[in-house]
Write a structure and sequence with these properties.
By secondary structure, the chain is of the alpha+beta class. The protein has one domain. The protein contains four helices and eight strands, in the order βαββββββαβαα. The strands form two sheets. Strands 1, 4, 5, 6, 7 and 8 form a six-stranded mixed sheet that branches. It has a two-stranded antiparallel sheet with strand order 2-3. A hairpin with a 5-residue loop joins strand 6 and strand 7. Helix 2 packs across helix 4. It is rod-shaped.
């Protein structure tokens, strides 16, 4: 049975400055984290990994049709963990901004935070989907005796589970899930730079 463990979310800030919202946006474009080749205002990273210590298996053996044994193994327990880091801009000082500009900056930061938290939620949901899939997986092997059949089932596990849930494949699935989120929700709020 799978478990999904969220090990926490930390926020890291990068400093931006400016006396107008246009200046601040230029600072974000110069200093913001890179995503797909360009600097963005906010960025969330949430890698999902399998905790090896949590992985336990169950198995059963049945007599083979042509003698020997058939083995079947599956995950008795497995934990998918994710820890997130959100990068956000931090304004050095708003003392030279107008009241309207200060309000717009507050609105922008609040909505940016909501958007980035949405990426944290997307990661948790995708990890649960993967966990459900893993629970349904069975790894089979055959052999002249139980030990040989079990070794064959382990080969099946290494081949099938390793191929589907390699770190590269998990990362690609997460990337696709975040892209879908962007397609439905947009790439985050826009700062209204025209407010003086």
């Amino acid at each position: 049975m799978y478990k999904v463990k969220h090990s926490g979310t930390s926020v890291k800030y990068y400093n931006v400055k400016g006396d107008t919202l246009a200046d601040i946006w230029a600072s974000i474009e110069a200093k913001g984290p890179k995503a797909h080749g360009k600097n963005v205002a906010g960025l969330t990273t949430c890698p999902v990994t399998v905790n090896p210590a949590s992985t336990k298996f169950d198995q059963k053996f049945t007599p083979g049709k042509k003698g020997g044994y058939d083995a079947e193994m599956w995950h008795k327990s497995i934990t998918l963990e994710y820890k997130c880091t959100i990068k956000m801009p931090k304004l050095a000082s708003d003392k030279n901004l107008s009241k309207a500009a200060k309000a717009e900056w507050k609105r922008f930061i609040a909505q940016l935070n909501v958007h980035e938290q949405g990426h944290v939620d997307v990661t948790g949901k995708e990890a649960k989907v993967m966990g459900t899939e893993i629970d349904a997986m069975k790894f089979k092997g055959t052999g002249k005796d139980k030990q040989t059949a079990f070794k064959d089932a382990i080969k099946s596990y290494k081949r099938d589970f390793g191929a589907k849930y390699s770190q590269a494949n998990v990362d690609a699935r997460l990337e696709a899930a975040h892209k879908k989120f962007h397609n439905s929700k947009g790439h985050g709020p826009a700062l209204n730079k025209t407010i003086q």
